[in-house]
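=== Structure Prediction Worksheet ===
Name of assembly: unnamed complex
Input type: mixed (protein and possibly other molecules)
Chain count: three
Listed entries:
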Amino acid sequence: MRGRRGDGPVVLDVIGLDGLLTALRTDGYRVIGPTVRDDAIVLEEIDSVDRLPAGWGVDARPGHYRLRRRADAAMFAHSAGAHSWKQFLHPPRQRLFTEDGAGYQPADDDYPRLAFFGVHGCDLAAIARLRTVLGGTAAFARRADGLFVVAVACTEPGDVCFCASAGTGPAPGTGYDVTLTELAGPDDHWFLAEAGSDAGTRALAAVPSRRAATAAETEQAHTAVVDAATRMGRRLPPGDLRDLLHDSRESPRWDDVAQRCLTCGNCTMVCPTCFCTSTEDVTDLTGARAERAERWASCFELDFSFLHGGSVRRSSASRYRQWMTHKLATWHDQFGSSGCVGCGRCIAWCPVGIDITAEAAALAREHAGDA
Amino acid sequence: MLPVAYRVVERAAQTRDSATLRLQPDRAPLRRGRPGQFYMLYARGIGEVPISISGIEDDGSLAFTIRDVGAVSRSLHSTRLGALVGVRGPFGIGWDTSSVIGHDLVIVAGGLGLAPLRPLVLELLGRRGDFGVITVIVGARGPSEFLFRDELAAWAAGGDLRVELTVDQPAADWGGPVGFVTDPLARLVLDPATTTAFLCGPEPMMRFCADLLLRDGLPAARVQLSLERNMQCGVGVCGHCQLGPLLVCRDGPVVTYATAGDLVGVREL
Amino acid sequence: MLDDLGALPLFAGLDDAQRRVIGTVALDVHFAAGRRMLVDGQETRAWWLIRSGSVALDTTVPGRGVVTVQTLGAGDVLGWSWFVPAQRWRFGAVTLEPVRALELDGARLRAVCDADPSLGYRLTQGLLEAAVHGLHSTRARLLDLYAQPPDGRRAP
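=== Predicted Assembly ===
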């Protein structure tokens, strides 16, 4: 991945990485990155690379997520955490306005400048998906427009990852300011860093310990990423998924999934592109002050589709069909791309281990059998 | 998007559970909607619901016909004269009257479906010479459930429209037609090449009417219907109003049967 | 009358010769408004294809009086029970406005169909299509689509 601007790839060591992080903080950014808490890797504000989960990997499988100790000190060799970057751009709850007899006031919120530190390719694509859907709303635009993104290429796909077949990784696509490739071995630990914007070039230039990468180092880093694409644990079936899901509307497979799906909505909460919200309208006890907020909603909620005395989608089969069809198919009709970025979170965090790639493959087999 | 304050300047009870409110902007008006579009109406502290325009006046006031079916609509339905309501909009795609010049028009309204069709009929009457025969079929549960009864009588007497009323359940004092809206629809003699239909009412009603019209040779693209789904934002970002590939607030509520035909009959879509 | 019959959807599947045969058991008739055409429980004799005007199908319900179940108009068949010999009418019928109709003699039409099964089959197809439309219409009314949601299912 060649930097579009500036001086070409540079090499940072761990101290250099901290220098980059510090430069961002000095510049007024609140830096958000992965860190270990409560036996998981979560995303929080961090103030140094010491907070990064060095040496921690994950064992992510359908319905299963555990941390495990790595033999090296890699900081970004993990995936499928319950947090995604969407909570910072599209918060789980946000106030919209208040009304107190003197008219409607938009909710005052502070919109700090955020720097995302360690965005994998799948998650970078997810941010772009959210931008397409929500970019027209004022609150999202204010949060997303000043964003600084440090992306990270993956060299070690997790078991539930399928970014390659989703077209979003393992190398990050467009939309980063700096991209890193981490090479962590028993004897050394370094990062290939490339700028993707003027802001990224400036940020790297502010790291004193950086040095230009040699051709061999660049080659080594790029090769590691290319190789990762061939080691994905899972993949979406090939072919046009939009057509497949459309043709599968009456498939018996939905009843099959419904036997397993609890409609708990975990998948929608951990999914980095799920964006649905519901509005809440309240007043204080005297009724003098009214307020509206929006909160994350899930199409698995029983009354998500409430209409005329009942929900349109009552059965769990219809609600699972809605979620999967929207994610892989009708998102194309509505927003011009797939809604799935192949991060695998829904697979790991489903309490019963439903695997969207396996469900898609089952539908594809059934469809091929008919044809 | 913030609601804008509108004041209730007129309230006309329509049936036992519905009323038409005429609203005027308290200060700055919103953009004037077109027939078939909707606004989000906010009952302070209770909630917001999508309501189609049922009247667009020259003075900038907007009329909405509200049926009491839940907490928000109950509040709006019983709003007193002079009270304020929060309004956002207009949203959505309205009835397409641009491509039907010279056509015979068939308008079928079922129950509350007459409300979004009323501004369409008024617009057509304002340009009566542009169209051929206009037939308005109105179905209601019973004789006391018709909306805009006086106006329907005036339309029938006016000579510019053919108006056919029909009830699902007769009452002792009703000497008029009894039967589902598909009965008078089936009796129409149509030239499918030059007829366009506008349907609004419960989804099964629109489906049955559309199927009949298609059987009579109307192309699906010339049957327009108004869809309804749970809506919370009106601008395509909350996700609630999806019907397959459509975001009803953004791609509708008015769509043609060519778009909606294979969606409206699907179980739990 | 032949051209007339050809224009009616019910007879659209018949050829000219078959329509001529139908013509021998059919009559153009007129009824003033308020005229009872069918009496509930009476033996069937003639049935009608309404050309214009409207007719109310009704039945008597103790306590509710005479209830109109459906109204029929141009193009509608009035009376299905003639199809089976020795049937009686279910429901009555009274004209709401002046009615012009084609009246067909049930017994003679049954004989004609027995003699020419092909005519009988095509006529039956037309009648079945009309009956199915009526059935769908009735089912749609059973859905009670314009009703209020029941109390426990109001919107939040």
